[in-house]
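User: Quick sanity check before I run a bigger batch. Here is a single chain. Can you write out its predicted 3D structure?
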Amino acid sequence: MFLPLFAACESPIAPPDATPDDVVDARVDPADVPLASGDVLLEGPDHVLAPGDDRMTCLFGTWEGGDVGLHAVRTWQSVGGHHFQLLGTTVPDLDAPDGTVVDCTGEGGTFSMADLTPLIIAEEATVDGVPSELGAGLPVGMAVELEAGQRYVLQSHYINYSDAAIRVRDLAVLSTVPTDAVATWAAPLVLSRQDFSLPAGEASSTSFDCALDQEWTLHSLFGHMHEWGTAFTVERYEGDVPTPFYAVDEWDPAYRDQPVVSAWEDGSMVLPAGTRLRTTCEWFNDTEEALVFPHEMCVAIGLVYPQKGTVICNGDAR
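Assistant: Done. Predicted structure follows.
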């Protein structure tokens, strides 16, 4: 699934003009993807992966469908697909025109992706014809705001385990509704700390607090770290009493892209104004150098309502 949110991207790469005879054309056929009323089909980056390639590729675009409510996202990938996500970005068209495709596998490069924002968690992903559920879907009448002119990134991750080169192109279906059909607006809540340094060869941890300035109801939440993470928790404080409500006691590196998502039934997780959310990340840095953001991260991402527009808290260390 999703979420190396702040990976950096390399220089633009051009999609192939044709598929050579020695390359397997594994692109998803749009004719195989069912569409319902209000669905919009977006095509991901078109590129070739050599045998053994582990690559993340990003395609820049602009939403031209007018102001709508985004109710759901479903994705389709070929064999070897790891995740395909729709993310918002503030990178202007001048810097990355629509259709720009970049290799965003590494941590350094031409394009800084630190201005990415989550939009919505894909609720279903189909890889090589096999569907799987990811995040919890929004109830009827709830949607995330998607405004005309919103710049976005389609981020595709593949690991080519085969012995042949493959050409891939993923598809995403956005289920949209008119704004006047949205009864409740939801939006991402991002809790993050960036001013940490993880000593080489040591276990370390950080905790930070974010105080909510208004009441929201939490729909879902997941944690984000990279491969050096060992455990992740979020607690809620009303006064001085902590209540753990999200915990991954043994972090798996795969959770970087396919996070553990917790969801709550409609209306059951109310967060009153003044609630403090304490996020704790634990790591073991087995490298020979200190690790800092964005090589490692400590981010919790939720979806709250009623709310229009992403809420970001860069928390203070305890």
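The CA atoms of residues 51 and 163 lie 5 Å apart.

User: Great, the batch can go ahead then.
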